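Fold description:
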Amino acid sequence: MIQIDTFEGARAIVQNFRIRILAVAALSLFALVFSGCGAGTSGTTNGPGGDPNATAATVNGKAITMEEVDRGVKQQAQGQDGKFSPLELANARLTVLNTLVQQEVMFQKAEKEGVVPTDDEITTELNRQKVESRMSVEEFNKQLTQAGLDEKSVRDNLKKSLAIKKLVDKVTGKVEQPNDKEIEDFYKGNPEVFVKKRGVRLAAIVVDPNNSGQGDTTTNEAEAGVKVKEVLGKLQMPGSDFAALAREYSEDPQSKGRGGDLGNITEDELKQSYPQLATGFMNPDFTVGRITTVVPLEGKYYIFKLQERIDKDENLTLESPDVRPQINEMLVNTRKQLLAASYQAIALNEARVDNLLAKRIVEFPNELSGARPASTGTPVPAATTPAATTPANVTAPANGNVKADKPADKPAPAANANKPK
């Protein structure tokens, strides 16, 4: 696994952790709608709490139904919930229910703070996500029907996610910018962080053939193949903009949001995970600015662009580009993360939560068999963890294109392996 040992990587980790806490259970529209998370499906009614109309928990008197819980389980399990044993299903349900409870607590706080979005704001965001999905109206409505949802339920989900975001922004808005002394002290106290090591800075457009939510528009190999061909065709057009195409087509949230930028990855990190990838990108014949062909990694398809090659280690100073702004951003985000986590902890402590599902499990523990349905003969992934895939090594031929080689049991370059520029 690529280790994150530079400032930019640490900043990315803080930001990702902050998102998990701040957007607690604010599930995105298309993760809910287009990952096949319909309610009342087979495989989600065995064990305690099997009635979809039953109340799983209440938050200050507001009910969360088993239907909502099982919808989340199906989304988390990527449609594999029918293979769960009663014991695995109960664990998955409790995990999802805890998330829904946190979401409801934060949404009720948002209501009290008067930061619930207007109908117009919901419509604007819904339209934006429809456009971003690149689906036709007919395809969109078909996906809703298959998921057992309608536009009202989609709007309700979106209302909660936008409200929680507004609440978080309001709560963390009181965090002030650090002064120059604090920035300088941070720099002096973390000299090992500010080293730009020999390696490369990459950008990527990622196409994911798996139905993993997070804004994916391809859900199988055939759709992924069509999309990859479309992207490659546009990249070959004169004046094509890799960053703009990454924002439009990439199905990896980080690369999409950063115009494809994956940050700096050291040569040692590349050698550890993909020695042939390191050989290709570190080869002077592979010129900066060159774009690869399709590279399969971890079950996804990457199109890389070499943005920079760093030939030797460089110690960064406070006057190096982006160092001061990055320290400032990290300190602010760390404070916001702590503030938001504390706010959420207080909100959960104050809420009247009655977890009826947990009570039923305690009352009927012997109903929870560990046996999976007889029809499945393959291992089932953990309820909240997608199944691992085997990536591929890559080589760089003389013409500079990177192509797939034989599979290897090594992890792909981490998308958040960002370094100071």
